[in-house]
Specification:
Blueprint lengths: L1 H20 L6 E8 L5 H13 L8 H4 L3 E7 L7 E2 L2 H9 L13 E9 L6 H4 L2 E9 L2 H4 L9 H12 L6 H8 L9 H20 L38 H23 L6 E6 L1 H6 L2 H15 L9 H5 L7 E6 L10 H11 L1 H9 L3 E6 L7 E7 L2 E10 L5 E4 L9 H8 L15 E2 L16 H9 L4
Parallel strand pairs: 1-5, 1-6, 3-4, 6-7, 7-8
Antiparallel strand pairs: 2-4, 4-5, 9-10, 10-11, 10-12
Helix pairs in contact: 2-4, 8-9, 12-15, 12-16
Protein name: YcjX family protein
Organism: Rubellimicrobium roseum
InterPro entries: YcjX-like
């Protein structure tokens, strides 16, 4: 309790300092970009920045269409202890003669894009152009999952984690090892380390099979914490009044240490300072992996969104340390894998999938939006004959072979409930059809002066996220 009070006072003090300094500085928007693995965070940030710097493909960003963005340039990010987002390297990978996908996020990084804006309003002619800084913060998807642990104790997390493991692939070795252990026995480091390693291997297998809720996230990306006690524990069956020096008690202690030393600092330093938020969701990937993976994604996103503390930012709330996210965009990525006639259905499915999280955000006062986007368009649309009928497809380069392929992943239903209901009921397969997903490689680009990379609705996403401040 003392630690929580100290954290609240520290956060309130920092917010008060920021509020006092704000009138004497250029305004700043902190945009958080989050999402689980393979949702496309790195490509989203790279394409967004490139298209804000060269705005020829941004007609739905009103400030760009009205030529009120006079200039955009990159500056050093303000947080000296945070790695810079490697924008130039990622853009070079996407625009090379033989383009490739950039490396995924493995640590927190940040980038500051400064925008010089034409004056507006009655006094605009007197004040001259103004500057707005957009600080974009990127988080590893694996670490994002841990925010849901903050409201759980070790017993509750263990019960939930073990229930999930019994329904997922790759858990056999961990569960077999666990069956031979009494959680109430005396603590032994070798035993607990073996359990932790087996559980980490299971999480890795589950993630590769398309499951989203794989906590603790640092078990998948340990970094310099590898081998430390905060990453050497595992879920255990409940024990009635476990002894003080038992395996169960030590696992519980390390679980709480993980939350205190890893999750809370991450939340405090980054998430608690966000103004606007993008939540990228690979809905099509979850569909292709089946109903259980789809339901697992829904549960994971509901957990994550509970940590955002959304709502409108009043100046008094800032002073009291209650900074809240004002706008949240739920974006289904890889819309270029579908013909445009199905984009509305993908957006509706995303909205229904995240209904619980979105309702919570709107109730707290945040504006929310759901849309289908492609940060980098990799396909073109076509129609082909199949079984005597014309079928809408997309064509692109297959990621593995580089050969041109045509894809029709399956028709999404008009009513998202036709997918949500069987997923919640625990169905093993979709009742009407399966959904295919082809991994496309980025296509070679020829960009004219003033144009950023091709995309689908990235300008609409930017208008929702920052248009009001431009």
């Amino acid at each position: 309790m003392i630690g929580s009070v100290t954290e609240s006072v520290w956060q309130a003090t920092r917010n008060m300092a920021e509020a006092v300094a704000a009138p004497f500085q250029d305004p700043v928007i902190r945009l958080g970009v989050t999402g689980l693995s393979r949702a496309g965070k790195t490509v989203f940030i790279t394409s967004l920045v490139a298209n804000l710097m060269d705005r020829g493909r941004m007609p739905q960003l009103r400030a760009a269409a009205e030529e009120r963005v006079l200039a955009a340039w990159l500056q050093p990010q303000p947080d000296d202890a945070v790695a810079r987002f490697a924008y130039e390297d990622h853009l070079a990978a996407l625009t090379a003669p033989e383009p490739r996908w950039p490396e995924g996020t493995r640590r927190t990084s940040e980038l500051r894009l400064s925008l010089r804006l034409a004056p507006t309003g009655l006094l605009g002619g007197l004040s001259g152009p103004r500057v707005l800084h957009l600080d974009i913060v990127d988080y590893p998807g694996e670490w994002l999952l841990d925010l849901g642990l903050l409201d759980r104790d070790f017993a509750g997390w263990s019960e939930r984690a073990l229930a999930k493991a019994r329904q997922r692939p790759g858990a056999e070795a961990f569960l077999k090892r666990l069956d031979g252990i009494d959680p109430g026995q005396d603590f032994d480091e070798i035993t607990l380390r073996g359990l932790a390693e087996a559980y980490a291997r299971h999480l890795q297998t589950a993630r590769e099979a398309g499951y989203s809720d794989c906590t603790p996230g640092r078990f998948l990306l340990p970094g310099d914490l590898e081998g430390s006690p905060v990453l050497t524990f595992a879920p255990l069956p409940a024990v009635a009044d476990p002894p003080r020096r038992s395996l169960w008690r030590e696992s519980e202690r390390r679980f709480e240490a993980y939350k205190r030393l890893v999750v809370k600092p991450f939340f405090r330093e980054h998430f608690a300072r966000i103004d606007r938020q993008v939540v990228l969701v690979d809905v099509l990937g979850a569909l292709a992996n089946g109903p259980r993976a789809f339901e697992d994604l829904r549960e994971a996103m509901a957990d994550i969104l509970g940590a955002f503390n959304p709502g409108r930012n009043a100046w008094l709330a800032r002073l009291l340390g209650q900074k809240r996210v004002e706008r949240i965009l739920f974006a289904a990525t890889k819309a270029d894998h579908l013909h445009h006639t199905q984009h509305a259905r993908l957006a509706a499915l995303t909205e229904a999938l995240l209904r619980e999280a979105r309702d919570r955000a709107e109730f707290a006062g945040a504006e929310t939006e759901a849309m289908a986007i492609a940060s980098l368009r990799t396909t073109v649309e076509d129609r082909v004959s199949s079984g005597g009928e014309m079928v809408d497809v997309v064509r692109g380069r297959a990621a593995g072979s580089g050969r041109q392929v045509a894809l029709h992943p399956g028709d999404l239903p008009e009513d998202p409930g036709h997918l949500l209901a069987p997923a919640r009921a625990g169905a093993e397969d979709w009742p009407l059809q399966d959904y295919a997903l082809e991994e496309f490689a980025p296509a070679p680009l020829t960009l004219r002066p003033g144009e950023g990379p091709p995309h689908i609705r990235l300008d609409k996403a930017a208008e929702f996220l920052i248009g009001d401040r431009l």
